[in-house]
Prior knowledge:
Elements: H1 13-22, H2 26-42, E1 44-49, E2 60-64, H3 71-81, E3 87-91, H4 92-95, H5 98-106, E4 110-112, H6 121-132, E5 137-139, H7 159-167, E6 170-177, H8 193-209, E7 212-217, H9 233-252
Parallel strand pairs: 1-7, 2-5, 2-6, 3-4, 3-5
Antiparallel strand pairs: 6-7
Helix pairs in contact: 2-3, 6-7, 7-9
Amino acid sequence: MVALPSSPHEPTRRTDREKLFRDAPLLWRVLMRVDRAVVGLTGRLEVTGDVPDSVRGRPLLLAANHIGNLDALVLIAACRTRQLAPRFLATGGLFDTPVLGKVLRACRHVRADRGKSTAGEALGRVVSALTSDHHPVLMYPEGRITLEPDMWPERGKTGVARMVLASGATVVPISQWGAHEAMCYGTVRVEGFGDLWILFASWLWAIRRRPKLKVHFGAPVDLSDLSADRVGDAARARDRIMRAIAAGMVPLRAGELGAPRHFDATRPATGKPSPWRP
């Protein structure tokens, strides 16, 4: 029996992923490589789970919990191991800075204005970004670093759910743990060199300790029975997404499901107890 050669028009899983990844802006791919080196210096990256090939190249939103100042870098490095080049939903102020703003636009990240009359435009921007570009959008449903006493996800906002329902995108939950050990919370507002030094010094200490930086890609959240037009469905979608993120955190923080072992004296634990805590 002779095996027939595969057709060149039938790309393998690997070449499909590589093609999608290489289609991302060159500058963003270069920055992702630099990011991986920084994360490798900071700690030990451990990535589990994956994003199914069946949802790649289609409207896709990645929803992650927010635990620290460096967790965005960890998420970028984790995505790179899965050949994903996500676009972040970033605050509008970053786009207004002279250099960083140009970089963000060149990398096709998505702007979101908070607390302004244009805030509602973020929904339209994300829906457009999801449907016009095959690279996923990554965002934090909580909207800030969690201040929940034991660092479980906060309640979260319905913005992610409304974007997903309006675009028909698939949402993949991402759970992470350990990035909070790579840099302290610091101050709410950086007002001088001393505030920056606190952050930098904590990062140098992390380089010596090399904490485990754990990221898990969960299974897509089933929202097929929900609608953008039905009252209450955005909250229901938000609840399912947040529960999926919290459930994925359980194996990542085994042995510290209560108070985290790592204590950060600069972090104000002023949030309400998480409704998603298992």
